[in-house]
Amino acid sequence: xxxxxxxxxxxxxxxxxxxxxxxxxxxxxxxxxxxxDVVKIRLQAQNNPFPKGKxxxxxxGLMDHLCVCEEEGNKVxxxxxxxxxxxxxxxxxxxxxEGIKSLWSGLPPTLVMAVPATVIYFTCYDQLTALLRSKLxxxxxxxxxxxxxxxxxxxxxVISPLELIRTKMQSKKFSYKELHQFVSKKVSEDGWxxxxxxxxxxxxxDVPFSAMYWYNYEVLKKWLCEKLSLHEPTFMINFTxxxxxxxxxxxxxxxxxxxxxQKQAKLxxxxxxxxxxxxxxxxxxxxxxxxxxxxxxxxxxxxxxxxIAPACAxxxxxxxxxxxxxxxxxxxxxxx
Length: 336
Hints:
Oligomer: single chain
Strand order of the largest sheet: 1-2
Strand content: under 5%
Number of helices: 10
Distance between the termini: 24 Å
Order of helices and strands: HEEHHHHHHHHH
Helix content: 55-70%
Shape: globular
Radius of gyration: 21 Å
Structural class: mainly alpha
Number of strands: 2
C-alpha cells in the first residue's frame, strides 16, 4: 500500500525493488515451510516405503513439485531409516542423527523454479494493480481479482514446461545434451503444446486461488486497518490477512489440488512407461467421485491448510515488509 499523507507525493517502489522484496520473501518462506514437508515425506516413506518409479509431491511452500523415487537404496534423503514415532519425534531425530541441514533436503533444485515463479507472480500483480488503479480509481474492488488472475496465469504459463523438464532431469540424471534431445523429440512427436501438458490442472487450481486470495487479502487488510484506526497496515495485519485469505482459498480450490496431484502422477506414468490412463481433468474428477464419493475431492484438507496458511502469511508479510523498507529508502533519497 502506498502512503499518501496530507497531499504528499506517493513514494513508489520500483519493479526491481518489488523483485528483490519478493525474492527475499520467497527464500524466507521456503526455508521456514520446507522442513514441515520434509518431515511429512519421511513419515510417509517410513509407513509405506517408496518403490522405484513411485511419484510423490514435494512442497517448498511456494510450489508443489512432482518427485520420482530413484533406486539408490537408503542413500536418498527420503529413504534414510529413521524409526520416527510422530512429527515432533521425526524433527528431533533428524536434527540429532543427520544434522539440521537434513530438514531442507531436496530444496535447492526446486528453488531454481519456485523463486523465479514467485518473483514473476508478485511483481506482475503489483504492476497490474498500479496500472488498473490509475485507470479505474483507487477504490475499484475488482482490481485485486483481475490482477491476481492475470499474474498467476502468466507465472504458470512460463513455469509449466520447465517443471516437466525438471522432473525428467531428476528422474534420470540427464545431461544437458540429452535433455535438449528429449525436448526436441517431444516437440517433433507431439508438438510444442505437449510441453504444457500439466498446465490446465495447475491453472484450474492456481488462478481461482489467486483471485480469491488477493481479493480477500486486500479486503481483510483494509478492514483490520479501519478496526484498529491505522493509516498503514502493520506486519501483523499483513501476516493475519495472508494466513486467513490463503486458508479460505485453499479450502475452496482443494478439489482442483486433488485432481492436479493425480493428473501429474498419471502424466508421469505415461511419459515413463507409456501407460495410458484417463488424464483429462473432468475424467479424473469423475473417477475420484465414483471411487470415494464427493468427499474424495476434499482429501488432505488439514495437511493443505497446515502448509498453505503459514506459507501465505510468511510470504506476503515479508514481501510487504521488503516493499516498506524500499519505500523508506526512496523517501530518504528524495529528501536529499
